[in-house]
Design brief:
Layout lengths: L1 H16 L3 H23 L16 H18 L19 H19 L10 E3 L4 E3 H25 L9
Antiparallel strand pairs: 1-2
Helix pairs in contact: 2-4, 2-5, 3-4, 3-5
Length: about 170
């Protein structure tokens, strides 16, 4: 009987210790991705923010603002309203390196702060993101993957323009 009680107590302690593990793990990986995207944004000279690899493809500045907009969009689909001073549809009108980086950083802070507010018991709740139907866990993973996707895009843009990603120097 003592062994059974000990096993039940140990199991409940382990389960309790796992609360929020998924969210905090995603938050940790996303934090690293976001830091590198911001470092790339800062490494590009301002005159390269309008550079694009071909007609019809996002420029450096547009790609950064796209990431910012997606952070707010995906976060809102998970139930978190963007700050009142944010016009998601108006983000594309932001110009200038400093302003674009500020918008990106603010959107990063928004998703990082809200990831851990998604409760474990709701991770399997279905959400219609418009481009896919998934659960909340899928939405959190989409935020992380999307940032990683555009980090890769910006690395290619940087290398093409002679900009070395700061972490690889």
């Amino acid at each position: 009987m003592k062994k059974l009680l000990f096993t039940l107590l140990l199991t409940s302690c382990i389960s309790f210790a796992q609360d929020g593990l998924t969210q905090s793990s995603i938050q940790a990986v996303l934090t690293g991705n976001q830091l590198q995207v911001v470092q790339l944004a800062e490494a590009f000279p301002e005159e390269k923010y309008d550079w694009r690899p071909a007609e019809g493809i996002s420029s450096v500045g547009e790609a950064l603002l796209h990431v910012a907009g997606a952070n707010y969009f995906l976060g809102s689909k998970l139930g978190f309203a963007p700050p009142e001073d944010i016009d998601i549809m108006g983000l594309s009108k932001i110009t200038g390196k400093e302003n674009i980086i500020a918008a990106l950083k603010k959107s990063n802070e928004f998703v990082l702060k809200n990831i851990t507010k998604v409760e474990d018991g709701t991770l399997d709740e279905e959400v219609d993101f418009g481009f896919m139907k998934s659960n909340k866990l899928g939405g959190l993973l989409a935020i992380m993957e999307h940032n990683g996707e555009h980090k890769g895009q910006l690395i290619a843009y940087a290398r093409t323009n002679g900009v070395v990603p700061p972490w690889s120097k």
